Amino acid sequence: QVQLVESGGGLVQAGGSLRLSCAASGGTFSRYAMGWFRQAPGLEREFVAAINWSGGSTDYADSVKGRFTISRDNAKNTVYLQMNSLKPEDTAVYYCAADRKSYLRGRYYQALEYDYWGQGTQVTVSS
């Protein structure tokens, strides 16, 4: 069983930056593809970014391309989401998730594909 704990959320002004971290324990982190999702009030959970087991392959939602960067450090069992040029519409609870499939194949942009989830961290961007 894999446990995921997100941190780094908070309140930031539009145009600012935050870096989210997701620390994993209880499994072989380096075998998993990892994803970040977010959920705003009243909306469905949506895909933000994903990264394969090695960090050599990444993908992003169109809404965050060029502003967000996903990365991982397998030695630290941690995945990161660097968020720059934040907008009020980025306000949401951000979740990290682990997929036992190591590669970004199939519907990795769908929440159902992921096997383990963190509890989420709130990001609020003020205008």
3D structure, described in words:
By secondary structure, this protein is an all-beta fold. It is 0% helix and 48% strand. It contains no helices and 11 strands. The strands form 2 sheets. Strands 2, 4, 5, 6, 9, 10 and 11 form a 7-stranded mixed β-sheet that branches. A hairpin with a 6-residue loop joins strand 4 (33-39) and strand 5 (46-51). It is globular. It starts with a strand and ends with a strand. The model has no long low-confidence stretch (mean pLDDT 96).
Question: Which short descriptors sum up this protein?
Answer:
single chain, 127 residues, mainly beta
Query: How many β-strand runs?
Result: 11
Overall 3D shape: globular
Percent helix? under 10%
Q: SSE string, helix = H, strand = E?
A: EEEEEEEEEEE
Strand content: over 45%
Low-confidence stretches: none
End-to-end gap: 40 Å
pLDDT averaged residue by residue: 96
Structural class: mainly beta
Radius of gyration: 13 Å
Number of helical segments with 4 or more residues: 0
Biggest sheet record:
7 strands, mixed
